Amino acid sequence: MSYQVLARKWRPRTFQDMVGQEPILRMLANALDQKRLHHAYLLTGTRGVGKTTLGRILAKCLNCETGVTSTPCGTCHACKAIDAGQFLDLYEVDAASRTKVEDTRELLENVNYAPSQGRYKIYLIDEVHMLSNHSFNALLKTLEEPPEHVKFILATTDPKRLPITILSRCLQFHLKRIVPEQITQHLQHICTAETISNEQPALEKLAKAADGSMRDALSLLDQAIAYGQGTVTKNDVNNMLGSMAQEDLLPLLDALASQNGQQVFAVSAQLAERAPDFEQTLEELISLLHQIAITQLVPEAITVDEPIKQLSQRFTPEEIQLYYQIALLCRRDLAITPSPQQGFEMCLLRMLAFKPGTTAIAHTEPTSAAQPAVKKAPEPKPVAVKAIETEWRTLLPKLELSGMAYALAANCTLENMSDNKVVLALSANHQPMLNPKLQERITEALTRYLKQPTQLEIKITTADIITPVKLQQSEQKKQLDTATQQILQDPQVKQLLDMYDGTVEVSLLT
Prior knowledge:
This protein is α/β, with parallel strands linked by helices and 510 residues long. It has helices spanning 6-9, 22-33, 51-63, 77-84, 101-108, 133-144, 164-167, 180-193, 200-209, 214-227, 234-241, 246-257, 261-272, 278-297, 306-314, 317-333, 340-353, 385-395, 403-410, 436-450, 468-488, 491-500; strands spanning 40-44, 90-94, 121-126, 150-156, 171-174, 197-198, 231-232, 412-417, 421-427, 455-461. Strand 8 (412-417) and strand 9 form a beta hairpin. Helix 9 (200-209) packs parallel to helix 11 (234-241). The longest helix has 21 residues, at 468-488. It starts with 5 loop residues before the first helix and ends in a 10-residue tail after the last helix.
């Protein structure tokens, strides 16, 4: 007998077999037991969480020969036929491959005829958002007044693309992403049943990589079993996924705690030799910083290994919070860096360069013996214009502004920042944007971020200032120019341009 993949072999056949969707299963079970049946069900959620599987189970619940029930017997002809995909009254359609209105009309042409085998005709339409507008109109006519013997089960990963007229006629259930702990527990159950030797950390890694999808988790488990020749170990899973284990990053944090830049880059180079996925590496680093932060502030809430406990004593809580924020921002910007390794190295450089709570050192005047020393108030440290512009661009996202308030702030540049006052400059061309309400919102955001009452002054200037908006536009233009040059240098593109006297237009995805 040929091998059956785990995702198919362990596909749930009853509500009780499903993992992670308890609220939805409870609602459906109660409705079925009370015979409160709807004519159309819409199942939404990301890939691999059980939409189609739930649709098939619901079809068994409605057609089981023991009667409409939330616990189908699984042994009658209808249940077995549905499990085998041979039930004549279950019409299972992939809308992605049948988008035309003619396909929909052909599907629904026999809707008025009574079921040939079961109690209900079930139309299970997967990825229903892929239907054309004409197909939706054809489906809507049947959804408005369906025959008593017809039930619709629609499944989609993108409900926003469904017309409101379809949504309003369906009973909608949103299937959540399955949390890693539940996936790990289910994988452990399967490994035990299949007598597969495994390590718990390896299953946890697979569960995390599945990103909420049980089907993806089972496919990854199949790959891991094949990779490990029948066993699932942590090292094999890391190698298979091209991922970095957290313990591999501990030497990096150790060097960072010592502020040893040379050692930081030596460890980083060793990691780079393994050609890792740097986005995943940053995720593991963020997770480690999260564990250290909890260990520092709420130690009773987490159980960690001894190396993490030791590291938590070598960093201040403020440093960990700063490094966490740096790593998050670097992970976000990784896609636009010239290379992922460079983005990762810049993250480490920022962690070495910045310290929380640093302040400028006040300069004092020399005093004579006849004149007592008088302490002067610290003056704002003079900065170069370019540094201020970059600093304001870095600070701006942390203010968590939105809408017109963000637009106004993004068109300003920072002139001065003292203990409790911030001075911004706004070009005269953008003066119409300035109004008291928006200025008040920016003031509140600065006060909240700086954790002290802050005054805000916005000056109007006719000078040519470089704002975060201009910096972003400049960077986008540079990216466009670089992309255009790379495309124009391609021999095949050159040949096409010469052949058809064409031109190249490059635009950024937004």
